[in-house]
Amino acid sequence: MAIFRSARSEGPGYFATYLESRSIAWRLVPLDEGAPVPRDPRGFSGLVFMGGPMSVNDPLPWIAPALELIRESVRNDLPVLGHCLGGQLMAKAFGGAVRANACKEIGWGEVRVADNSVAREWLGELQAFETFQWHGETFSIPPGATRVLENAHCANQAFAIGKHLGMQCHVEMNADMVRSWLRGGAGEMRAAAGSPTVQSPEEIGRDLEARLAALHQVADRIYDRWTEGLSRGN
User: Fold this and answer.
1) Helices (H), 140-192
2) Going by C-beta distance under 8 Å and a sequence separation of 6 or more, which residues neighbour residue 63?
3) In principle, which of 64, 158, 178, 230 could form an S-S bond with 167, CB 3.0–4.6 Å?
């Protein structure tokens, strides 16, 4: 499995913990360090794209090859998973659009599981859960996909199409990542402090371990469903 990182602070986090606990092999592709995007996905069991502070609409040299790699993976029936920026990459690769959201979301907030059979395939009878957010853009639901998660501030929180899942929210967070983002994003948080969808560092850090433990239970469910589709590759 290949995990693509576009920013040093936005690695696989809890997803790596999940994979290692189940002895699932993975390899990091650090795009932020200039690693090339593979052209052929067939050497991997699946592809995972993590978050990042850039936009998928930015003229970065790795974005177009990443979009084509996602499309090639789908053509070869290899599962793709996206977190935040990764979900936006998937949406764009599948024919959707990425644009500014009505507001930034930073911090903890509830998302609802959509009322459809596809969402239940991924999340069972769960109706809502608290997750972590840090984004200013949003994706449209691409053609052929189904909305899986939603909330009041950003209607498209996750979509699925077959064995592929793109998420706007961050279910991969661990304590180190949260603390790192609070340090690195302090200026962005101050600039948006008047927004009701941007929490203070104190609120984000409140009951952090308990919140993460609950989030990881949901992440396990999502990742269990996604890993069912892995091929026998690396």
Assistant:
1) 175-184, 186-191
2) 56, 89
3) 158
* Segment 133-148 mean pLDDT: 98
Q: Is residue 234 part of a domain?
A: no
Q: In what order do the strands lie in the sheet with 27-30?
A: 27-30, 2-5, 47-49, 80-83, 164-167, 158-161, 146-150, 98-113, 128-139
**By the 8 A CB rule, do 104 and 198 touch?**
yes
Q: Cα dist. 195→106, 207, 223 in Å?
A: 10, 22, 32
Q: Cβ distance 145 to 119 under 8 Å?
A: no
What Cα–Cα distance (Å) separates residue 224 from each residue in 18, 22, 121, 124, 230? 9, 10, 11, 12, 10
**Six-digit token pair at 153?**
């501030």
Which pLDDT tens digit goes with each residue over 206-231? 999 999 999 999 999 999 999 999 97
Residue range of the domain that includes 189: 2-227
Give tens-digit pLDDT for 153-182.
999 999 999 999 999 999 999 999 999 999
Which residues, 6+ apart, have CB-to-CB distance to 137 below 8 Å? 55, 88, 98, 99, 100, 101
Q: Look over the chain and give the mean of its residue pLDDT values, rounded to a whole number.
A: 96
Checking DSSP bridges between strand 2-5 and strand 27-30, what pairing results, if any?
Answer: parallel
CA 181-187-193 angle, to 5 degrees, is 100
Question: What pLDDT, on the 0 to 100 scale, is given for residue 234?
Answer: 59
Query: For position 47, which CATH number holds?
Result: 3.40.50.880
Is the pLDDT confidence value at 119 over 60? yes
pTM: 0.96
